[in-house]
């Protein structure tokens, strides 16, 4: 039987743009959180969760992050445990809507779950430090090693924009963000990065090592 464990330390670590997740092909900025969506699915019948869903403002970032959750079958079991793994309450997702089980849940649900499903609060994105250097092919004489910090969900195209406007000091009135890839290329470990990637994806799939992320930029001539 498949078992999914949601732990406070990493339950909210899985962020993905709604476009990359296949939820919204036109929205490039909104993010979905898979851990929060799973919690919404588990506690969907729990009255405080239902009420929070009704009160959430349309367009709210947390509402967007969890709006694509799936309704689980009524017979899906779940267990609320202490941090050491000791079970506190066993029930089916359908039972969370019953008065007795709902009251029992209110006594044992940890605060980080309440923050997500009742208070519509999710942890902020983590900050990620990274370095910017010119690509070796540009033959830099004494490259300046710029150390920056940004949210881990920052897209590569925003780094390209920073390089174009701040590092290379272009003052041509700016360029549309969706065209910045025509001016700048960004690399990590010899891999050319797609503008829509976020820093966390780059570090996980292309950097693949300890230490702070290193990004290389190369202006496109012409």
TrEMBL record:
Pfam families: DUF3337. The keyword Acyltransferase does not apply. GO terms for biological process: double-strand break repair via homologous recombination. InterPro entries: WDR48, WDR48/Bun107. Keywords: Repeat, WD repeat. It comes from the Eukaryota. The keyword Repeat applies. GO terms for molecular function: ubiquitin binding. This is Anaphase-promoting complex subunit 1. It comes from Caenorhabditis tropicalis. The lineage of its organism: Eukaryota, Metazoa, Ecdysozoa, Nematoda, Chromadorea.
